[in-house]
Amino acid sequence: MCTMEDFKFLFKVVLVGNAGVGKTCLVRRFTQGLFPPGQGATIGVDFMIKTVEVDNDKVKLQIWDTAGQERFRSITQSYYRSAHALILVYDISCQPTFDCLPDWLREIEEYASSKVLRILVGNKIDREDREIPTFVGEDFAARHNMYFLETSAKEAENVEKLFMKIAEDLMQVQAKNKDLPRYESSTTNISGRTSSVSDSSCCSKLT
Ligand SMILES: Nc1nc2c(ncn2[C@@H]2O[C@H](COP(=O)(O)OP(=O)(O)OP(=O)(O)O)[C@@H](O)[C@H]2O)c(=O)[nH]1
């Protein structure tokens, strides 16, 4: 039987990015294998767990899904500190979500560990109305020393690959020098989903 302690590594992964870019859908796709209909906006922070296997070792990913809305910023910032990996998500069909990336990076630099693994994700590649070409995302990621991937939570494209890559990279870092941010469990419990957000409301900006 699988017990709570039946894993070799525990990594905390935090998703950030503007409201409506698809953070929750990416997490639900990976952890539950579904694309939720009528997804409501995240209130504060939510988390899900999935255990994966890398090189015959069990790796438990604790995935924290933060609210993109500005009014939750002080809550979500407090979750950066103990993250092993931060996934910064934008919507490839919504230019303002890409334009906000430098603001998100400033937040990450201020609140996260300097050793955190940073990944840039352009989500919603199933959409026809792309505004940000792949090479623009790639270039941004390269300039900021981030791994880059484009995904579709809707079509399950590259979602598994994204989280498996993170698990593998974190295991490698751990194996090499144990130079990861110290894991601290958080007892804050502010989560839930109420109001609804649609694709068209994806462009709320950081101020
Ligand atoms: N076409 C398409 N729509 C998506 C995809 N991922 C998410 N969406 C839609 O985008 C909207 C927002 O998705 P969420 O996952 O709630 O976005 P979020 O980033 O968690 O938003 P906040 O919780 O407000 O920060 C929903 O209407 C989803 O159905 C995708 O890969 N493709």
Written account of the structure:
With 207 residues, the chain is α/β, with parallel strands linked by helices. The chain has one domain (9-206): P-loop containing nucleotide triphosphate hydrolases (Rossmann fold), CATH 3.40.50.300. The chain contains 6 helices and 8 strands. The chain has helices at residues 23-32, 73-77, 95-99, 101-111, 134-143, 159-177; strands spanning 9-16, 40-42, 45-54, 57-66, 85-91, 117-123, 147-150, 193-196. The strands form 2 sheets. The protein has a 6-stranded mixed β-sheet with strand order 3-4-1-5-6-7, with helices on both faces. Strands 2-8 form a two-stranded antiparallel sheet. Strand 6, helix 5 and strand 7 form a beta-alpha-beta unit. The longest helix is centred in the C-terminal third of the chain and has 19 residues, at 159-177. It is globular. The relative contact order is 0.24. Mean pLDDT is 84; it is low at 182-207. Bound molecules: guanosine-5'-triphosphate (GTP).
What name does the CATH topology carry? Answer: Rossmann fold
Largest sheet: 6 strands, mixed
Give every kind of bound small molecule, once each.
guanosine-5'-triphosphate
- Count of spatially separate domains: 1
The sequence of SSEs as H and E is EHEEEHEHHEHEHE
Number of helices: 6
Specify Rg, calculated over alpha carbons. Answer: 16 Å
What's the β-strand tally?
Answer: 8
CATH architecture: 3-Layer(aba) Sandwich
- Return the CATH class: Alpha Beta
Q: Tell me the structural class.
A: alpha/beta
Please list the strands of the largest sheet in the order they lie side by side: 3-4-1-5-6-7
β-sheet strand percentage: 25-35%
Report how far apart the termini are. Answer: 49 Å
| Mean pLDDT across all amino acids | 84
Shape descriptor: globular
Helix content: 25-40%
Q: Return residue spans where pLDDT drops below 50 for at least 5 consecutive residues.
A: 182-207
CATH superfamily: P-loop containing nucleotide triphosphate hydrolases
